[in-house]
Amino acid sequence: MLRPIFEKIGGAVLRHHHRLFVSIGCLGVLALSLLIPSGTLQSQSMPHSVVDQLQPYVRAMQVAGKSSSKTSFLLLPTLEAEELRVGSWVSGSPVLRLSRVGGPSKGWWSFKGRVGYRTGYPSDRNDGVLWQGKGVTAAFHLGSGISWGRVSVVLHPTIFWAENRDFSLWPVFFSRQPEEAYPFRWIDWPQRLDNGSFWSIDPGESELSVRLGRWMAGLSSRNRSWGPGIENSIVLGRSAGGFPHAFFSTAGPLSTSLGAFEAQWLFGRLSRSSVFLPREKDAGRYTTGVTVVWSPHSGLDGLHLGAALMKYGPWLEHGWEMVSDVFRSGAGDQSDQLGSIFFRWVLPRSGFELYAELARNDRWAGVSDLLLEPEHGQGYTLGLQKTFGASPEGTLVFSAELTHLEAEGTSRVRDNPTFYAHGYVLEGYTHRGQLLGARAGPGGIQQHVGITTYSPQGLVSLWLERRVKDNDAFYYWAERAPETVCKYCKHDVSFEVGAEVMRFVGERELSVFADITRQRNRWFEGPDVWNLGVGFGIRGLGGFTPERSSYER
């Protein structure tokens, strides 16, 4: 019963290769979007495709003590209207200057366009379904939705075109795999997606949901995230696009005498990219998981504790076995499992937050195993944010984050599986060639430092990043490299500096961005290379109601 539903949703992707037609079309749509008049929208019905992008801002305002929001930000929250209308953006952002006129039905439309260019090789910046290959990449998100009583329907597809120009690929060491595949292990995480320019239509942030009091249920292709990481969430992140799934979750913090609780369960279907085993039929994979967050009271306001568990495996004929698999284990289990515990502690009087996630990529063999080698199969993220000068004129936010997914020393004496890769499910923890977890990647390490200023005019963001590529594969390579090779000199490490400026212009958001990366020892034995990325974007939002309403000025 479940299979045909998810096959239809997951199969709603089209590809074509008429480069000139598609590039002109995408750029033309971006130009026309400047001419679309903005409508009005009640803030109560604001679409999640817009709210999700406001989360870094509202999270920073919560840390600065300017928001009354009790949301933990540990699972892609749906923010309420009153939680949004805070800080310096209230007077400047067209999204936050919305009136609150009610009506029997509430609808909206939104658009977002983006054009970028890369000089060297593909890059991932938690941009979901978008594939930023070498050359020009143009994306357009256009959606509409309506809420009627407890039911909400959202159609918000993504259309993008990638020039996807050729660049030097590293030899692939596995038979049946094309030259674009990942070279060092079985995983659907290709060096290059497809072998030329292509365009794609994806369901994007579409969703059908029913609200049952403080709970929600529905079918969705929404991009979800679990855990406290801003750049890297280990169990479920934003590196890949959303996959078709059913879900059941709280609609916000659920207050009880023991504290506030948030929870989410999902079951979905994963698909391969066109690059992975192209001559073999994709039988599909399932993924199912649950996360729970507890925010205690009694003098511990600002502390949020959570746990997440996710499993994925080959698609089975009996649907109930897959749906309930997150709670099962056994010797014959052919699925893979990731789990984590995490916390976030917000101290608004100090304008400071601290967070961490401790994940595990393998089951414990028993209590003795847990006590003797707790570091086996582990990964972690540590991070903080500090705000300065929170005022209507602006707020400065400093952030720092470290993610470590490299195998520990236990790998010398026992099998220590690499994050997101699996010996039976060869595609790994991926969807259409992109990682569902942290963008640091299997065996990866990433340090990120950023400064962002929020003002009534928009934002300015600067960041510096160091990223180590797949150290698990590096040490496997180094053990077999000739003695004449300087092994400690050959880690694949990238250093990146970037900036983004976003400004409110009338009833639009306009942005420009640029980053430059120096990659040392590409694929361990390769050359040092540069990669420059530049681009611009535009976003707008409007609504339609039975009654005429207007923006607050």
Q: Could you report the average pLDDT, rounded to the nearest whole number?
A: 85
Structural class by helix and strand composition: mainly beta
Percent of residues in beta strands? 35-45%
Which outline best applies? globular
Instruction: State the total count of DSSP E strands.
Output: 24
Give the terminus-to-terminus CA distance: 51 Å
- CATH superfamily membership, which one? Capsule assembly protein Wzi
Helical stretch count?
Answer: 7
CATH architecture heading: Beta Barrel
Give a quick account of the main beta sheet: strands, pairing sense, barrel closure. 18 strands, antiparallel, barrel
Given as residue ranges, the uncertain stretches (5+ residues, pLDDT < 50) are 1-44, 99-105, 546-553
Rounded radius of gyration (Å): 23 Å
Tell me about this structure.
- The protein is mainly beta.
- The protein has one domain (2-544): Porin (Beta Barrel), CATH 2.40.160.
- Helix content is 12%, strand content 39%.
- It is built from 7 helices and 24 strands.
- It has helices at 2-10, 19-33, 48-63, 81-84, 319-323, 367-372, 471-480, and strands at residues 14-16, 106-118, 135-148, 151-155, 158-162, 198-202, 207-212, 215-220, 245-250, 254-256, 259-270, 285-295, 303-314, 336-347, 352-360, 378-391, 394-404, 430-431, 434-435, 445-455, 458-468, 493-505, 508-520, 529-544.
- The protein has an 18-stranded antiparallel β-barrel. Strands 18-19 form a two-stranded antiparallel ribbon.
- The longest helix is centred in the N-terminal third of the chain and has 16 residues, at 48-63.
- 45% of the residues are buried.
